[in-house]
Amino acid sequence: MSPRPPSAAVRRRRRRVRAGALLTALVAVVVGGAVAVEQLNDGEILVRERCSATVGADTFELTPVQTGNAALIAGVAVSRGLPARAASIAIATAIQESRLENIDYGDDAGPDSRGLFQQRPSQGWGTEEQVMTPLYATGAFYDALVRVPGYETLPITEAAQTVQRSAYPEAYADHEPEGRAFASALTGNSPAALDCTLREPAGSGDALAVSAAVEEVFGPLGGAVDGTRLSMDASGATGWATAQWAVANASALHITSVSYSGLAWDRADGGWTPATTAPDRLTVTVAGATP
Q1: Torsion sign (Cα): 27, 28, 34, 38
Q2: Angle 70-247-175 from CA coordinates, rounded to 5°
Q3: Which value, in Å, is the radius of gyration of the alpha carbons in the chain?
Q4: What does the alpha-carbon distance between residue 55 and residue 249 come to, in Å, rounded to a whole number?
Q5: What is the distance between the alpha carbons of residues 268 and 257, in angstroms, rounded to a whole number?
Q6: CA-closest candidate to residue 97, choices 147, 58, 36, 140
């Protein structure tokens, strides 16, 4: 026998239950930089992971993956001694070309385009494996950019288009504000301007792996590993670039705290707060193994 359809009263109660569940699943946005969360049915709080760059009155957000790639792009500019403007151009270009993700496909205009900058092996940018390597791709972009006369003073659209030769040259300008904000933070020109809201680490970290990753981008900084803590020599804007690189990569590398120049970022709370730190010393702590 077929079951009887629910009564009108039962249907109303079900609608109220569904509506209540939907409300608890909505992201809570609180003014002042508080955590955006989703309330799950069993009471668990799920953090919506994201990173933000705040420069002046403007704040822009990216995912942790996008921010990690932006940090690499900015870090390579710092290691090469390039101005922050170069990083602004490169980050804005990568946002337009790949959404700052290391994608392994192209489009109809460039079917063999790959990587952060959608560089084409058929156009001499390197092999497919090379352009899919973010460090190589970023270096190749800067190699081309520095050959553009006066690129530092050109509009981002013009500088990027000279390098990329895109079918949509005006699109780069759309990403200039966020490119400039993330570049300013990640090159260290805007101290403590980058923050990431993250879930608890999914596993333990490796301070030696963090050290190797830092050296790959910035070169040797000198320092020591003690258990879950990495201490590095750092100073000035380069120190802030490295510190904010660590925050940008906190999700991928299971970093729990970063301290530098009298301030500390803590994964559990987010934001930068005053801290007692040694002069010219950057400290990064990773998650320990779960007992």
Answers
A1: negative
A2: 25
A3: 22
A4: 20
A5: 9
A6: 140
Residues 6+ apart with CB under 8 A from 56: none
Rounded-to-integer distance, Cα 236 and Cα 111, Å: 43
77 neighbors 142 (Cβ within 8 angstroms):
yes
**Cβ atoms 255, 284 nearer than 8 A:** yes
Q: How many CA atoms are closer than 13 Å to the CA of 191, on its beta-carbon side?
A: 15
Helix (H) or strand (E) holding 207: helix 207-218
Helix (H) or strand (E) holding 255: strand 255-260
Q: CA angle 208-248-164, nearest 5°?
A: 110
In the chain, the domains with their CATH numbers are: 56-186 (1.10.530), 203-286 (no CATH)
Report whether 134 contacts 115 (CB < 8 A).
yes
Whether the Cβ atoms of residue 101 and residue 115 lie closer than 8 Å to each other: no
Q: How far apart are CA 52 and CA 285, in angstroms?
A: 21
pLDDT tens per residue across all 291 residues of the chain = 433 334 444 343 444 434 444 333 333 333 334 444 444 444 445 668 999 999 999 999 999 999 999 999 999 999 999 999 999 999 999 999 999 999 999 876 688 999 999 999 999 999 999 999 999 999 999 999 999 999 999 999 999 999 998 877 788 989 999 999 999 999 999 999 999 999 999 999 999 999 999 999 999 888 899 999 999 999 999 999 999 999 999 999 999 999 999 999 999 999 999 998 877 899 999 999 655
